[in-house]
Amino acid sequence: MAIQHPLLYPLASAAQISQTPSRADGVPDWLEEDLRAEGCRLIQSAGILLGTPQVVMATAQVLFQRFWYVTSMREFSILEVAMGALYLASKLEEHIARMRDIINTFDLLLSRLRYTLSHPSMPLDGFQYTPMSYYSDEYYAYKDELIIGEMQLLKRLAFNVQVQLPYNTMVNYLNVLGLGRIEDIAQMAWSFLNDALQTPVYAVYPFPTIACASIHLAARQARVVLPEPPEHEPWWELFDTDFEDIEQVCVWVLRLYSKQDEKEREEVFRLLLGGRKEVKKWLEDNSAKNDVAMEHLNQH
């Protein structure tokens, strides 16, 4: 059993992990997982366009993931929480992004997504974006959503918005294992840490476990043999981590690379664009379909 790390930041409880608020409201596992991932990709894309440091984008994604362990997607939209998370993270990391720039960037990304869904066979070269007016109703609607998102993040996370990222820890662990000078392995592990932000693992596992998982994945990809039992002491025990937890993190990350069903992907994008109203409608429609199916089964 791994030694418990003294944490200055919250992790989801076993009860929250087994039954998230969204799942309690009827959102299936696959849909919640995909909406979480798309929300994080939205944050990352917006951050890149805004030129914000990686630490801001990573912090925003961790806060975004934590939020859905205390709140249902039936109550708030992916968009408002994503915008609020990026704005809040820019303050926490002292690289403050202007509210107007965040709003215009998210509007650009959503407009591009709408174009892609409406013109699936057309290249993005045909997409043209016109920024909204600073005085338009649409702009103020976005502004309200951003402010609500930031306020609800602070409120529902009880102002516990401390985030500790595993990047430096991962580099230190590589050096301890004598892998720091192996070409490309640090870069691969770094990339796995970035990809893991699209999953809930940062809200579930302590950062040393995530750092070890990225090393495990990078070593496998680079075909580097790490010391393993019974010939050697388990390398992960050097860092007070549990191999079962490392494997679970790896499963989350590797799941990102599996091919997504095209219809499911379109459904996720539609719900992302439609916000909580569209999610509520989807839940009501599926509940009605399930009731009809159950009634049909009972009759037979």
UniProtKB/TrEMBL annotation:
Keywords: Cyclin. GO terms for molecular function: cyclin-dependent protein serine/threonine kinase regulator activity. One of its GO terms (biological process) is regulation of transcription by RNA polymerase II. Pfam families: Cyclin_N (PF00134). The keyword NAD does not apply. Residues 41-155, 168-258 form the Cyclin-like domain. The keyword RNA-binding does not apply. PANTHER family: CYCLIN (PTHR10026). Belongs to the cyclin family. This is Cyclin-L1. It comes from Dacryopinax primogenitus (strain DJM 731). The lineage of its organism: Eukaryota, Fungi, Dikarya, Basidiomycota, Agaricomycotina.
